[in-house]
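The data are quoted verbatim for completeness:
=====
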Amino acid sequence: MRIAIFGRTINPVFYDSLKRLFDILHLHHVDVVMYQPFAAYLCKEVKCDPAVAGSFSTPEELKDVDFFFSIGGDGTFLEGVSFVRDSGIPMVGINSGRLGFLADIAQEELEYALEDLFAGRYRLQTRSLIQLEDDNGTLADFPYALNEFTVHKRDTSQMITVHTQVGDEFLNSYWADGLIVSTPTGSTAYSLSVGGPVIPPVASNFIISPIAPHNLNIRPVVIPDYQQIILTVEGRGGRFMTTLDSRSAVCESGTEIRLRKADFGIKVLKLFNHSFYGTLRTKLMWGVDRRN
């Protein structure tokens, strides 16, 4: 088995668990290839220099990899997606911090999770992505997002207007600070914070959620993901910000942005004792009464 390990920085409380992770992989004769900047960080800051079979710094260097381990939080996982791309390599999210919907293997269950992985006791979920297209090649190196695409006002207190078309039909002109188009996976991220609905990650939908709209009766809309979304943004500032997950770019007013479901998905490893609804209860503390 060959496993790629990706990360940025980790919480000191995870240091011992990380070293235990490498010990277990070594005991199972796993070939480890590590993200080169992460390996340098571990050597310098954590004083951890595990034996590895190789390293990688670009997506093209991920050769013959069976699993891609992301160590950190959801932000690290999202960055890891830009390395996995359309390779079909299953991603495994190991949480070294606190809240995590993508990095959902907690520190205290790491050893049990690895036992299940080696025994084949897991399932793979395919998560959909949003693909961005425009005439300027914005974020063209990897024009995809696992969580969400956003447009947002830039360097001004004035709102922007986002003219929105779904399929062949005009939906609305949003006068707001911005607009989020979210995947089901992203429904528990930025979209949730602006009042968007929570939907299961395997649903076939997009969520269109305005950010601080001027009209109080404007609400998020759920649409089928086979429909293309076309956005045209106007604003007195002349420019606006676009993002795909954590990557951003500046676009000119009047640019037509086309969004659709990508032709490939990201495979995410899920343990049999993990469920989406159980994760909601745990991560969002549903049903917890702090008065007791």
Summary: The mean pLDDT is 93. Residues 15-27 form the longest helix (13 residues). Residues 2-128+265-283 form a domain with the Rossmann fold fold (CATH 3.40.50.10330).
